[in-house]
Amino acid sequence: MRIIDLSRPIEEGMPAYQGDGALLLRQSRFLNRDGYNGYRLESALHAGTHIDAPSHLSQSPVQVADMPLEGFWGEGVLLDARDKKSLCVADAEALRLKEGSVLLAYTGMESLYGSAGYYESYPAVSEGFVRVLAKTGVKMLGLDAFSPDYFPFPAHKACFAAGIALLENLCNLGALVGAREFKVAAFPLKIRAEASPVRALAFVEQEKGENEAKSA
């Protein structure tokens, strides 16, 4: 089994959405002065790889701490959407989705991470696309982009209404191209807020041929 890290590192100066303010990660305690090392972190919760809760863009009282843990892991399905300007019903219907799937949309936007274009020109997910996911029983949608949609955020709201966890700012999805089977886990902090950082991981089952080649 291979483990692929799909998460952005949390570090000083990392990209953040305009208006959210820069992430601050500063050492505040020092071993030679205080007897231990310690850091302080200050950040908007939508910087880096994160989960959105329904309370982010709706009147729902549901915060990250209220979301069921079962929604943050499952059998992965990869949609290679690098050539697409938007994701519609037909894109979802062409996938092998099943109840409990975690769908990862590989848009290629990670190459623009930190640039203005990353926040301005990502593919939009349609409400119809989300309806297919909801009908099938998909429990999490992840993207290597800042957002699945634009104002007034219909895809966000459709995911929240359907109980689909929304995972944003992924990376390394290209490593999953061609993988037959993999699982995804992206557990957030148990935080009473509208979003949370996550460590998103893909667990890729190795093919029989791969194992034999390594043992040879």
Please tell me about this protein's structure.
The longest helix has 10 residues, at 127-136. This protein has helices spanning 31-34, 89-93, 116-120, 127-136, 154-162, 208-215; strands spanning 2-5, 24-29, 38-42, 50-52, 73-80, 86-87, 102-106, 124-125, 140-143, 165-168, 182-188, 195-204. Strands 4-10-9-7-5-11-12 form a seven-stranded mixed beta barrel. The chain has a two-stranded antiparallel sheet with strand order 2-3. A hairpin with a 6-residue loop joins strand 11 (182-188) and strand 12 (195-204). It contains six helices and twelve strands. The protein has one domain (2-8, 45-215): Glucose Oxidase, domain 1 (3-Layer(bba) Sandwich), CATH 3.50.30. Helices cover 19% and strands 28% of the residues. By secondary structure, it is of the alpha/beta class.
Q: What name does the CATH topology carry?
A: Glucose Oxidase, domain 1
User: Level of helix content?
Assistant: 10-25%
What is the CA-CA span between the terminal residues? 17 Å
Low-pLDDT segments, ≥5 res: none
Give the second-level CATH assignment, the architecture.
3-Layer(bba) Sandwich
Query: In CATH's first tier, which class applies?
Result: Alpha Beta
Helices and strands, in order, run as EEHEEEEHEHEHEHEEEH
How many distinct domains?
1
SSE layout and pairings?
Layout: E1 2-5, E2 24-29, H1 31-34, E3 38-42, E4 50-52, E5 73-80, E6 86-87, H2 89-93, E7 102-106, H3 116-120, E8 124-125, H4 127-136, E9 140-143, H5 154-162, E10 165-168, E11 182-188, E12 195-204, H6 208-215
Parallel strand pairs: 5-7, 6-8, 7-9, 9-10
Antiparallel strand pairs: 1-12, 2-3, 4-10, 4-12, 5-11, 11-12
Helix pairs in contact: 4-5
